[in-house]
Task: structure prediction
Amino acid sequence: MQEEEFQSGKIYCANCFHCKLLPGSEGGILRIRCTAGKWKKKLEQEKVYRLCTIMRRFRDECEYYEDMGESTEFIRELRKSTNNEDSSTKSS
Ligand code: SF4
Result:
């Protein structure tokens, strides 16, 4: 994520305690769920997102948000570590 893409004052789901990686990956794609149950499809089924989508997903507010640290720094480090994870997943 480029610094200029980061929206200050917004809530990034990737920086929330409730944003969790699903075990395993389909075709090397990492998927994420919100353990607070805030991501739903039309018929109330749970929705999951790709990690790359969540890195850019932000909201104005969320009553369940619990930050994992300063957003810009946290997401930068998360992106670095998941890029390394993607590389190792693809090479195995
Ligand atoms: S609790 Fe809210 S901020 Fe946290 S991951 Fe779910 S929707 Fe995003």
Observations:
- The first helix runs from residue 51 to 54.
- The beta strands are 11-12, 19-21, 31-34, 49-50, 58-59.
- The CA atoms of residues 15 and 69 lie 7 Å apart.
- The mean pLDDT is 82.
